[in-house]
Amino acid sequence: MLDGVPQRIHEVTAFLAEVLAPRAPLTVIVDGGDHGAAASFAARLAEAFPPSARAWTVDAVLGLSGPAGGRFDSALNVLEPAADRVIVYLRSGPRGRPLGSGEGERRAQVVIDHHDPQWPVIRHVHPRLADPERWYLTESRAFFGARAAGWDAKFGDDLPAYAMAVETAAPRPGDLAIDVGCGTGRALPALAAAVGPAGRVIGLDVTPAMLQAVRDAGRGDRADLVIGDARRLPFPDAVAGLVFAAGLVQHLPDPGAGLAELARVTRPGGKLMIFHPSGRAALAARHGRTLRPDEPLNRENLEPLMAKAGWRLSRYDDPEDYFLVLAERLL
User: Fold this and answer.
1) CA gyration radius for the chain?
2) Euclidean distance between CA atoms 190 and 32, whole angstroms
3) Could you read off the pLDDT of 233-243 as tens digits, one per residue?
4) What is the pLDDT of residues 56-100, one digit of tens each?
5) Residue 2 contacts by C-beta under 8 Å, 6 or more apart in sequence?
6) CA 192/CA 205 separation, integer angstroms
7) Could you say which of 154, 217, 281, 330 has the lowest number of CB atoms within 10 Å?
8) Which regions of 106-189 does DSSP assign to beta strands (E)?
9) pLDDT at 57
10) What whole-number distance in Å separates Cα of residue 195 and Cα of residue 288?
11) Closest Cα to residue 285, out of 135, 95, 126?
């Protein structure tokens, strides 16, 4: 706590002030969530600006498309970003209740997970405001580290879906299989069984608390666990027979570059499995939005990205209960 305000709020607002302060004159609009949360965050953000910049406007603007208590995208339905305006969107809302189409979040240059107002986490910053190197690792660890201990209690019934995905990927006995962004290691037992005693499994995650959760769950016995960044994998070229990536690609700041890095460590003829234990439409609905045409995992967007990165897409499944993409590393 600093002056009665949680350290995490100070960290996020100080970073945003550092990024935005050189861009005066500027209006910062804080939207999303409920009016009280937006107003409170806007006040903290305004306090974080240096005194010379406090003549700027930092406002919580809501309700322009409906009452603040309604489930609308609020101000962002009518306000577009401009050179002198930055929109900060607070991603929040009651679980299971839709928040709108997601257009508000799409238009924002900064998106903050605000389900816990005491633990805000930056989930997106437009690259013209800040290079991902300035925030991506810190904020990813803040987001997943706070959730690691309870992850399996919330999602532990997904294990059969992960086993199905590994069976579909069909790694060869003796292969090296790398689970990039392994989380609590739900795919690791199935991967180890598939490659057999002559093979090797590596579970990589950027969040130390997630790897500790792997150990606590007893899933690290047949896998080497590595702390690492999916954008810069600590492995030589062309070593993996299978790269398994669950819930990873769409969260990378540059999905195309991420796919190229996954290709770099995969041998020619090796495979990539992109997976999620929910269909994309169902997952979007749980987060209170609908799928958008610009999403990187839409087939029409993903397939050219994969081809450019050195993959040939061979299977694309997106029913309600899982999402699965299988691709082969080109020669």
Assistant:
1) 21
2) 40
3) 999 999 999 99
4) 556 654 433 323 333 334 444 444 556 678 899 998 865 434 344
5) 10
6) 17
7) 154
8) 110-113, 121-125, 176-180
9) 59
10) 39
11) 95
Q: Please, which residues have CB within 8 angstroms of residue 317's CB and are 6 or more apart in sequence?
A: 323, 324, 325
Nearest to 42 by CA among 63, 70, 12, 19: 12
**Average pLDDT for consecutive 10-residue bins of the chain (331 residues)?**
76 94 82 80 88 59 35 44 80 54 79 93 95 96 96 90 97 98 97 98 98 95 96 98 97 96 98 97 87 94 98 98 97 86
Helices (H), 170-279: 188-195, 208-216, 255-264
How many CB atoms sit inside 10 A of residue 163's CB? 17
Hunting for tokens 């805000």 — which residue is that? Answer: 120
Residue pair 322/281 in contact (Cβ under 8 Å)? The answer is: no
Going by the DSSP 8-state scheme, the letter that residue 142 receives in this structure is H
Tokens of 135: 């925030």
Amino acid 103 reads: E
* Beta strands 110-113 and 121-125, pairing class: antiparallel
Separation between Cα atoms, residue 227 and residue 148, nearest integer Å: 14
CA atoms of 277 and 246, how far apart (whole Å): 8
Task: Tell me which H or E stretch contains 306.
Answer: helix 299-309
Token pair, residue 226, equals 């590595």
